[in-house]
From TrEMBL:
UniProt-recorded name of the protein: RidA family protein
Annotated source species: Providencia rettgeri
Keyword field contains Repressor: no
Keyword field contains Signal: yes
Family statement drawn from the similarity comment of this UniProt entry: Belongs to the RutC family.
Length: 166
């Protein structure tokens, strides 16, 4: 009989736990787009940043052409600067990134193969300096396409807020 009571009360217990967990989640929406810029879990201890894509080199540059966004190295630097600025806005640094997922597109300029060397050249500008002591775990994938035909790079990260920064 005790087991039956426990099984019947389990949905209620889980529902309360879920409701309390929802209180520990902070979502920062993207204006005009149905995703969150970031999601912070457990009072900001664990932060997920949505994938960032390159912005145009200049506001009047053509849309959808590679020259408007730069090569893989330039796009990587652009995207990592966006991530860095986003983290700084939350009181964090690139040192606080614990996981990075990188999506690279192989374009006509690389015969359809991702430009890993170009990515690493941009990445190393952020992660081979004396300022960065904590390297993230990282996965890099070649994908067929991103939403814009000129984009070659999208990066998403997970960061952890150290106790000293709470």
């Amino acid at each position: 009989m005790r087991y039956k009571t426990l099984l019947l009360s389990l949905p209620l217990i889980l529902g309360v736990a879920s409701a309390n967990a929802a209180d520990d989640v902070k979502r920062v929406p993207v204006k005009g787009f149905p995703i969150s810029e970031s999601v912070e879990i457990n009072a900001g201890n664990l932060i997920f940043l949505s994938g960032k894509v390159p912005s145009k080199i200049s506001a009047d540059a053509k849309e959808g052409v590679l020259e408007s966004y730069g090569n893989t190295e330039a796009q990587t630097i652009n995207v990592l600067k966006q991530i860095q600025a986003n983290l700084e806005g939350m009181g964090l640094t690139m040192n606080d990134v614990v996981k990075m997922q990188v999506f690279l597109v192989g374009g006509e300029e690389t015969q359809g193969t991702m430009d890993f060397a170009g990515f690493m050249a941009g990445y190393n500008k952020f992660y081979e300096s004396e300022k960065i002591t904590n390297l993230p775990a990282r996965s890099t994938f070649q994908v067929a396409k991103l939403a814009n035909p000129a984009w070659r790079v999208e990066i998403e990260v997970t960061a952890v807020r150290p106790a000293a920064k709470k």
